[in-house]
Amino acid sequence: MEFKDYYATLGATKASSEKEIKQAYRKLARKYHPDVNPGDKQAEARFKEINEAYEVLGSPATRKKYDELGANWRLYEQAAAQGGPDPFAGRRSPNMGGSGGGVRTMTQEEMEALFGDTNPFSDFFTTFFGGEVREGPRGRARHRAGRDVEHEVELTLEDAYHGTMRRLSLKHEGHARSVDVRIPAGVGDGSRVRVAGEGEHGLGGAASGDLYLRVRLLPHAQFERKGRDLHASVPVPVSTAVLGGEATVQTLSGKPVRLRIPGLTQNGQVFRLKGYGMPKIGHTDDTGDLYARIAVQLPAELSPAEREHYEALARLQTEAAKKHPAA
Asked: What is the pLDDT of residues 113-126, one digit of tens each?
């Protein structure tokens, strides 16, 4: 069981602030996340190492414990195995393990929920930060972080475009409470929105879990979403398609735009309206595009004058066909 240099794993140092530790973790987690590197076992292993390091360094209490143990962890391990005296007695912080009370950051159940049945963390982590029991004034009690809770929320495409607030009623251990959640603009079907600390309560004073909202987008009557792009059918009269003109295209912003239709536009032809798609989460000025598919509309009925003109057009087309028969 080798000593794990968690600072090196995150590219940080002991002098790094809590904010710098968090920034380093987020940068690496985004880079090596399994969703970004599907099927890449090396990236998956690196992602687990990064999470393990942050589980320790992201908490002031466990970071202090780690800093005090340092590379001397083997002395502690040997003393504990042999039932000998604590080699760190008198030099331990209140948050190091043992009879003074210990702090852990993730339970076995939580690790299994995240990574399956196999413990993804190192022996070093498990020995000093996992599965500990602390003793308080009321006797020995399990110190376990609360479980995360997942809840499905239905959104319209307009909600996803603009962002929205939802008030949720949650129940845990017979107690009900309301939580106001801000859902950012740009979320997609299946997106997960994290609400920190609103999951199940922890045991023994441990932190509560998080609430995750899984987004389910409702079908829209006009728009179809593909990634950050939107697709819509735009009805155009036969005369406009043939002679050219303009068509009105509705957008999710609520402001319609005018689309120029060239003469002899074919049914099903697609025009791109740049910047009228869905916004990127966290960057509402970065938007996808709207693709307008022309749907030429045939008249449902004709006035006498319209019929006369269509009959004249038919005669012209017949005469033209006779003069220039198809080869």
From this structure: 444 444 455 555 55
Secondary structure in 3-state letters for the chain: CCCCCHHHHHCCCCCCCHHHHHHHHHHHHHHHCCCCCCCCHHHHHHHHHHHHHHHHHCCHHHHHHHHHHHHHHHHHHHHHHHCCCCCCCCCCCCCCCCCCCCCCCCCHHHHHHHHCCCCCCCHHHHHHHCCCEEEECCEEEECECCCCEEEEEEECHHHHHHCEEEEEEEEECCEEEEEEEEECCCCCCCCEEEECCCCCCCECCCCCCCEEEEEEECCCCCEEEECCEEEEEEEEEHHHHHHCEEEEECCCCCCCEEEEECCCCCCCCEEEECCCCCEECCEEEEECCEEEEEEEECCCCCCHHHHHHHHHHHHHHHHHHHHCCCC
Which domains, and CATH codes, for the chain? 6-142 (1.10.287.110), 149-217 (2.60.260.20), 223-322 (2.60.260.20)
Q: Looking at residues 160-188, what average pLDDT do you find?
A: 87
pLDDT tens digits, 239-266: 999 999 999 999 999 899 999 999 999 9
